[in-house]
Amino acid sequence: MWQLYQFPLCPFSRKVRLLLGEKGVGYELVKEYPWERRDEFIDMNPAGQTPVMVDVARASAPLIDSVAICEYVEETVDKAAMINGTAANRAEIRRLVTWFDTQFYRDVTGLLLHERVVKRIAQRAAPDARGLRDAMKGAVGHLDYIDYLLDHRNWLAGATMSLADLAAAAQISVTDYLGGIDWKGHEQTARWYRGLKSRPAFRPLLSERMEMINPPAHYDNVDF
Please, what are the domains in the chain? Predict the structure, then answer.
């Protein structure tokens, strides 16, 4: 049985969870707050970041980093390929996964997590209004880009759902939980996101809550 070390609003863990759900791979969640710098977790992953995935039955080396975990799962589980198509298609999927993991996280999700989660839970401090405004402004620009992609494609990277969609939905779901998205004017992206939210793999994420922090009323509504 796999164990996945994560915390409820880690977007990279959510990406892994969506992939495991689509492929029907069972796992057990282990709550881990990276900012606590727990010795046992640092021993497992010196970077001190989630997610980390461990096969407790085999006592093998842990899988570290969401990119490495997703590539491992994609290579070892045949069901529901999420990095598929021609070499050019696979390159585009990986490009967009990197875009959402890096650019979206830097401009939006990471800012919100710092201001609304880490500051509140770890530092007992109030969020900075400027940081929140920057995150919401960044979200508008990224949703504009998603609208553009969906104007030309059925899914973000092409004709079929891929890891790019899961990576984007993971970041957006955390941003939406933290109240960082104004959906007005982004019907293309909202329609795409509603489709993903209705999938069985997404349901556990929508029901999960971060202690001390509640999402907006529309967060778990598929027909928001």
Answer: 2-76 (3.40.30.10), 87-207 (1.20.1050.10)
